[in-house]
Amino acid sequence: MLNVHTRRFDASIDDLRPWIESCWSAGERDCFPRDVIPTWRKNPPGVAPDALIPGQTLIGHGPFRFRLRSWDGARWRVDVAGGMPGWHGFDLTPDGTGCRVTHTLELRPSLRARVGWLVIEPIHDWAVEALFDRLGIALRTGEVPACTQRPMSRRVALSLAFARRRARRRRSDGSRPARTALRSNEI
User: Fold this and answer.
1) CATH 3.30.530.20 correct for 2-169
2) Shortest CA distance to 75 belongs to which of 101, 113, 99?
3) What confidence tens digit (pLDDT) does each residue in 60-99 have?
4) Domain boundaries defined on the chain
């Protein structure tokens, strides 16, 4: 399963790079729509919390976890940690006087996960486009907006409400621990 989003920015790769590096940091420079879907980054003890260490740094949003595979300043790759096999990433490519950012998600889901994707896909698509919106604002103003301005369609809002209700139910009945909880052996 392949999901691709692309946007051109009137900025160089050098201008875009620090904003991409701050994604999933839960910090003020994190362009992910973290006011709607919280983000996090986890590194081994003694390592700066904002560091990006291939094979070590874990990042995530909502219940989804990823392990940094590589980041060379133009190509960012993370592997899905747990759950279905797959990866997602960013490619920054020169485009005239600007830069094209491509976000790719590639998954190899089971049949059950394909059905779950029907709920997650509209949220994912909204989140990537909102990230691009916030990135554009950050490039123009030097700051990430506190609130995500991209409107949600009714389908996205319903999917997000369903996903949140399901996550709360899982946590409250103890049937399955929240996937965002990190065990000490995962770092």
Assistant:
1) yes
2) 101
3) 997 889 999 999 999 999 999 987 899 999 999 999 999 9
4) 2-169
22: helix, strand or coil: helix
Classify strands 2-9 and 39-42 as parallel, antiparallel or unpaired. Answer: unpaired
| Measured distance CA(154)–CA(138) in Å, rounded | 27
What global pTM score does this model have? 0.88
132 in Cβ contact with 145 (< 8 Å): no
CA dist 170 → 5, 29, 59, 151 (Å): 31, 31, 21, 28
184's tokens? 């000490």
Assigned token pair, 1: 């399963």
Measured CA to CA, the distance from residue 134 to residue 147 in angstroms comes to 9
Helices 154-173 & 111-141, crossing angle to 10 degrees? 120
| Cα 168 to chain centroid, rounded | 21
d(C-alpha 139, C-alpha 16), whole Å: 7
